[in-house]
Amino acid sequence: MSLFRRNKNSRNSGPLSHQSGPDAARAVASGRDLSSSKQFCFLQAMATRLQFENSCEIGVFSKLTNAYCLVAIGGSENFYSTFESELSGIIPVIKTSIGGTRIIGRLCAGNKNGLLLPHTTTDQELQHLRNSLPDGVVVQRIDERLSALGNCIVCNDHVALTHTDLDKETEEMIADVLGVEVFRQTIAGNILVGSYCAISNTGGLVHPHTSIEDLDELSTLLQVPLVAGTVNRGSEVIGAGLTVNDWTAFTGSDTTATELSVIESVFKLREAQPTAIVDEMRKSLIDSYV
Predict the structure, then answer these.
(1) SS3 state of residue 9
(2) Mind telling me which InterPro entries this protein's record contains (predicted)?
(3) pTM, full prediction
(4) Strands of 138-141's sheet, edge to edge?
């Protein structure tokens, strides 16, 4: 039996109601009302393979949401420019460190509503992120002993799965800052849910040894379809090798064509739903002014 905290603002109503895309993200990031627009320009959704220096664990050095993307400072210009070329003009791509390190994807947790940072985050880093992120994104530094938040938390814009031993105060902070329901869970017996899972509002990829029963339970909690699989030519550490939002994904260069096909399928990266995007954008605008 999983433990959970229900956020009063959560709007879980099924996977089809959470579809989004680049124009929705642009609206959320800028606060612009596109509901009366007659035309939509959709980027070609896809998954991109790349490396951070000599590492294929690009999820360690980046964090992607529907409202912003964080990339580690000090990496090659090609790493940054790959994100920039896919996301420029849609959401901000922000270079940063966290706690003086480059493993930012393993240290933070976030979605379009907020960003949670560990207690090791410096005042300068905190101010830099608050200045760089869209105005609607709440940035919060939390005092949690399990400071690798990216390993301990995985979330989309509606639900978060967490390490079973997180402090109660941290659980409440996740619900409040990220605007999500919180479930204490394991994935294939692993307590580091952020390491062995990647989810968006449209789907999720989990540890390859996840049982059918666990897949069904997790899918019910998240209200999105899930697939058990791998990245980087058989790696079980999904969160380290993949970062994804509702319309694009970035994965390590060792990821095979078969793995890439599974990623694009489960996250519905080649589908665009204009009506759903307008609906999601309207909800975001209404919520921001209520």
Answers:
(1) coil
(2) eIF6
(3) 0.81
(4) 109-110, 114-117, 138-141
